[in-house]
Fold this sequence. Notes:
By secondary structure, chain A is α+β, with helices and mostly antiparallel strands. In chain A, about 35% of the residues lie in helices and about 25% in strands. In chain A, helix 4 (about 180-190) links the parallel strand 5 and strand 6. Chain B is built from 16 helices and 18 strands. The interface between A and B is medium-sized, with 28 and 23 residues. Strand 4 (about 100-115) of chain A pairs parallel with strand 5 of chain B.
Amino acid sequence: MNLELNLTHIVSKLNDELAQFEKEWDERNLELKAYQLVFEDKDDLTPYFNSDEKVDMQHVNTINLKAWIGAVDSTCILLATTNKGLLFAFRACVVLSYSGKPRAFLRLGPYLIHLNSNNLDNMNYLLSLNGEKNLMNQVIRIRIERILQKLLATNLKNSLILIDGSLRYSVVEPKPFNLKDIIEISKERDNHIIAISKKTIIKNIQNLTSKLFECKDAPLIIPLSLNGEVSLGHITITKFTRDGIPLRVDYQNSLKLALSMLLSNDSFNFGYPESLSLAHRLSIFNALEISSLKCYVKAKGAIEVPSYNFRTLVL
Amino acid sequence: MKLLNKSDDEVSILCLPKENLAKGDYLLIEGEENKAMIVQVYDLSYYNLSGFEEDIIREEVIMNILQGVEKSSPLFSNITETLKDLILAKCKIRNYRRINCIPSRSKATIRKLQPKELDDLINDKNFDSFLVGYLYEKYPYHITLDKLDGSLNLITGKKGSGKSHLAKVLISGLLRAGAKVIIFDLNNEYSGLVSEKDEQPNEQYQKVLLLEPGKSLRFTFEYLGLKSVCDVLQNILELPTISLREFIRIWEYLEQRNLLTLYDFINFTKETRLNDFIKEAIISRLHTLLLSNLITERNSLSFEFEDLLNKEEGIALIFSLASLNPLYRKMVVELALSKLTDLLEKNLIPPLFLFAEEAHLYLRETYWDDMVTRMRHFGIFTTFITNQPKAIKESILKQLDNLFIFKLVNTSDIDFLSNICNIDSDSIRALVKDLRLGECLALGKVSKELPLLISVIDTPFKAMGETKLFFKKRPFSQKLNISSSFA
């Protein structure tokens, strides 16, 4: 009897609390009318938002300027979780282009790296233990890409270095060759750096890309005024070619010169430079290589242990 | 080698190129508790790991347009190369040690069955045998005589693939074993059995007799007998039944008076009182017989089977049909088969091995079923040789004891044969289309129902029956390396 009374009391109390919650969480006030959206059930979708904002769209008059272009990209995958840390495989590639054609490539890897307490500082080690795999992945990619970017910056002169991504100073920049160092070396040797991002999370940029889409002219830019935390260079939305897709482009020094070098010495596919595209294709791992890497790890003496999926066991 | 999968009678095995597996090879898969199975490789392909094709395309395209420098671990490169080269061997289960018990996938050991082990499985060593060809690894393949005795056989394949050559090898082996062989030779190619490649007579010279219809092959009416002559008149010359009845009456009349010659027959028929239509029908057929020159009046010129076929040593009688028109060809075959069946029925001659090239060109419709029913019981064991397997009645093919298939390219022929074989059609299709000149797939009693790929031996016989060509090879033509390596 007591039990029943208690239960009725508890249920009644919970019901009262929920009534209060319902009052506060009233979806009738949720207004979505006329909002533009893209559903997030598919990966890597870039929204095409129509915007009435007035933008400062500029045509860049480029000149024919023969120069070497060095494009850098890398891939890193988490291959295994060990009893001491995380085992990643990475590969990086430089593609050199000149006069509209890719000419040569340099490919490093695949190499393995075991992130554990011996090679990570305390904070990063704790992060890796907490499963911050994406961050660890970034640590490795930025480290290897900086090595190659420094290699290009010190060995080329009057050339263009293409970076996949942005000129943002990352929280995981390596100490000896960080982005600032590379920009400095490039300046000394009259090299230009352009970072091209296929996808940006900056909402302002997403809103403006449709303006460039509609315009048939090229190359076109929309300069953006964002603070230094977002980039060490200048940020633009740029459409390189008439059939091109607008991209976030960060640059250092003269945009006109950098664009002239890029347009004179690289070819484009939907407005994306072929050198960067090739560097990406040469870096990525396919299923065969992942199988090979697993064999390679075993050949190095690793012992595979049984594993289970707790989620599928209990749910 | 690793057992990858099994589905029905099909087994997939993963192996490396160094294991040198080839189509037709037999593998022994052995597991614990005496579980084992024998499988045969029928198809080989690269094991396609997902992403592999993409990798090949990427490498091929990029490496062709760019100079590249690569730095990676040699061990990783080796592993990738090995994975790219993995081979998937599709196999069919041919035998179990314990019925339907399959060995463990993880623990089973797989090895190529040694050709000697295969030979032990196939051949009963209690019978004499003769060399026919080679199994894989050039192991000699013999056929024991019991496998051909009493059997109905078919040798088929596209022209120039080696059918007649195998027939000659079989005939030669049978002759050495003392067998009596009848050959219907449509292309004058079996006369080469008696000579070496340099045209010198060989050891079979005394055992092979070439019979040329109208010349060395002639018969008297008396020797042939009423039944054989009636068979020709009715089945080949299509004499109506009423006329045949009158013919038999005249035959009996003349036989009683010892006047059984073709000329007497014609003259008597002309003079006797008969319906004009019947008279004309009989006389026209007798004239056809006369023109064929197959019938002689003189006993000394008449060919008799008994003397030759009752000799102790083997003998081959070659009926040369090449120069005959289709009607005379059918007459010769009808007379010969009818007379031989008659002699066998009366136990006057021993059983015969008959080799019939392109039999559909001269064998009458009703003989096909006789071949596998009646004549087989009397002791005529037929081997058909044809490049058109569909020309042979399906009822015959379904009763084949042995089948030798040389290279066939016509898919409908391959499908047709795969339907009548005891083994699965996948194996037939895959194994037959890749056969090379002189290689055949043997099935039936000769292989104990295990499909065998055999390279038929080269023989010292003079090759006959080759296609007569217009263009000649240049005397000093030099072979390119590529062609010599595929020869």
